[in-house]
Amino acid sequence: MKKISIKSEDLQKYSRQLILRKIGISGQKKIFKAKVLIIGAGGLGCPLILYLAYSGVGNLGIVDNDKVELSNLSRQVLFTKKDIGKFKVSVSKKFIKKISKKINIKTFTKKIDRKNIHRIAKNYDIVCDGTDNFESRFLINDYCMKNKKILVSSAINKFDGQVFNFDFRRKTPCFRCFMPKSPNEELNCESDGIMTTLAGIAGSLQANEVIKSILNIGKNSHGNIMIFNALDSKFRKIKLLRNANCKRNCIYA
Ligand SMILES: [Zn+2]
Question: Cα 183 to chain center, whole Å?
Answer without folding.
Answer: 23
